[in-house]
Amino acid sequence: MHRPSPTSASADTPAAGDPATTRVARRQQWAGVLLVLGGATLAAAAIVQPRGSDEELAVSLAESSAAWSSWGLLIMATALLQLPAVVMLRAAITSGPGVRLVAAGGGLTAASLVALFAFGQSHAEGATMVGSPPVSPELLEAFARTDSSVSLGVTAVLALIGFHLGWPLLLAGLARAGALPAPLAIVGGLAVLLSFFGAALGPLGEVALFVVAASSLAAVGLHVLRGSPPPS
């Protein structure tokens, strides 16, 4: 059963041009733009990330410092762009079908984006700190301690698992609420979920899956940008 959008003129919803409706429409437009841009930066990060190296992180950072710096900055940009979009999408669904899925998926995705920002920042700063090879034994030891720290492990788990589970839940909730077409939610959710297993397909397969996932999120952004405000 189709649920009317907040722009539908009725006794129960604000009329077009109403200040509340205008604010909802503007938030939706911003959410759409931010998702499109966030999808673009995520795809770029997937392309520039160094892969296929079995060396220690410090050595990889030194040998590919420009690529790791770019990756870290693009990941930080992705988090900064997608986080407010997720918050706005979450705030648009306050009752009715899908509200619990949206709340769970939105909260998990938002938390993962905060962790993802910290993860990207650590790699960008690490590439700058290590400098050019060879890497000194002291730096290797320092990075080994950092890699084994509990805080970094929790951040990595939250960034990866939260991102790859949070987005599918959020998209499913938006589809259940009538704010997103089911086919788009299914394709986007599956693309993000499957990209978690991209490493098993090798470097090219991993890049391809992440680019597809990023493009799917950008497509969601385009739909949000073009469509009417989600139901509240």
TrEMBL record:
- Its transmembrane ranges are 30-48, 68-89, 101-120, 150-170, 182-201, 207-225
Q: Which domain of life is it from?
A: Bacteria
| Keywords annotated in UniProt | Membrane, Transmembrane, Transmembrane helix
- Asked if Ribosomal protein is a keyword of the record, the answer is no
**UniProt name for this protein:** DUF4386 family protein
Segment Disordered: which positions? 1-22
